[in-house]
Amino acid sequence: MLDRPENPLRPATRRGSAVPYAVAGVLAAAAGTAAGHLVAGLVDPATSPVLAVGSTLIDLTPTPVKDWAIAHFGTNDKLVLLTSVGVVTLVLAAVAGILSRRRRAVGVGLIVLLVVLAGAAALTRPTAGPLDALPALATLVVGIAALLLLLREADRATAPASTSGTSRRGFLLGAGGVTLGALVLGGVGQRLGSRTVDPSKVALPTPQSAATPLPTGLEKTVPGISSFRTPTASFYRVDTNLTVPQVSTAGWSLAVDGDVGNPFTLSFDELLAMPMIERDITMTCVSNEVGGGYIGAATWQGVRLTDLLDRAKVGSTADQILSTAVDGFTISTPLDVARDGRDAMVAVAMNGAPLTDVHGFPARLITPGLYGFVGATKWLTRLTLTTYAAQQAYWTKRQWATDAPIKISSRIDTPRGLQSIPAGRTVIGGVAWAQHRGVKGVEVQVDGGDWQPAKLGPDAGVDYWRQWYLPWDATSGQHTLAVRATDLQGQVQTADRATPFPSGSSGIQSIVVLVS
Length: 516
Ligand SMILES: Nc1nc2c(c(=O)[nH]1)N[C@H]1C(S)=C(S)[C@@H](COP(=O)(O)O)O[C@H]1N2
Ligand SMILES: [Mo]
Prior knowledge:
The chain is an alpha+beta fold. It has helices at 19-43, 49-60, 63-73, 77-102, 104-123, 134-158, 165-193, 268-272, 305-312, 335-338, 394-397, and strands spanning 253-258, 264-267, 277-284, 295-304, 320-325, 330-334, 345-350, 353-354, 364-366, 380-386, 409-414, 420-421, 424-433, 439-446, 451-453, 455-456, 466-474, 477-487, 509-515.
């Protein structure tokens, strides 16, 4: 279409002639982004333009929108976000290309604006340093160079005089070259940026206070029930990070400071040299909906938080422990809760192995009984004793609760909602939790009838969940199953529904099964 003879008097209305300009914009953006990705691979993978913009959007997203995204996309929310940033960028780049056809400065200006936004995003991350501007600079230089080159070829290809294929070939060659360049730069950047730390090199000390061996769970006898201990590989993951921080133990340290008489900093080896405890603890995310999957149970090993606090000699004004991760993310833990005798710890191991990168290597906080966002800081690097009035953590600034004990709840694992099962004897089973208070009993209700007591699985302490099951003679038809738990103090799981925001969901899970 490009070399079709045209009416020289009306060049601007030729159909399709905007296409090379749109392509020029898109490819220039791709090449620039790829160059930025490469430089980010050398500096810090998280400063790659699309990632930096994505992280900034996560921080800026109002809580209701974030809740909606988590509810609709679940753990795909990050992929959806990055794809959206990419698509919007490419659409804007296409527009910039088309605008450049008439007013070069406008199109180029739009691209510059996009890069400036990406640069600003990278430079306003909590831990940003001057080097974090480099990916955006690379994006700018390569993006503008590619844009100007392709615009020149687009001009030639669409010029009224271009009736031969030569000029079109020039554009295609240019476009091909820029595409290839983008692929190479992006590919190398991806390789550089995906270097990972190797937690298996850490030699774990023997804990002074070991956990009692975990009893055998019901998973062998009740098919479909959650395993009593969640394997690390299937443990839920929740954090604000688009890329998993890769923290080497070599440069890592843990500082304890703020309102303390004796501030100190520990290297990783110094932390490992302290006495350690090992405990079975079930973690839950405040974003977990009733019946949801943001819960996992593991064995954790680490240094008692109170040992660190005692060594620092906490002052009299502090009411919270503000913990900071290597990327600047912060969590507040109420000081009185951390000191009430529960097994809060700076953990270095999960299920008998060093923490994995996604779960916070080399060290993280674990606070039994509190939702993760107020007690489970991953990639931990600082514990600051301060007040809620003086400093607010990430989620506190976003109006989430400061005091957030995990609510009593229970979940049906088997049968699954809307599952079709054959009539006859079957088993209803699942898990129930009331961390730090303990589960006394679980009851199941079939078709709105009486609450029937379920049988409980083994007990691994009040901070750990309980498996439960109830044999059931299923008759043909549609049935509604519900479950509720009671804690050791006799408090029954409420039927009152609450959303995860601001202090965790409540209500009773109810599922429908089809028996034939
Ligand atoms: N650094 C950091 N730590 C964090 C978070 C985070 O976003 N960044 N999220 C918290 C939340 S909301 C939860 S529920 C737990 C989840 O821990 P997991 O991913 O190991 O299951 O980590 C907590 N620690
Ligand atoms: Mo969470």
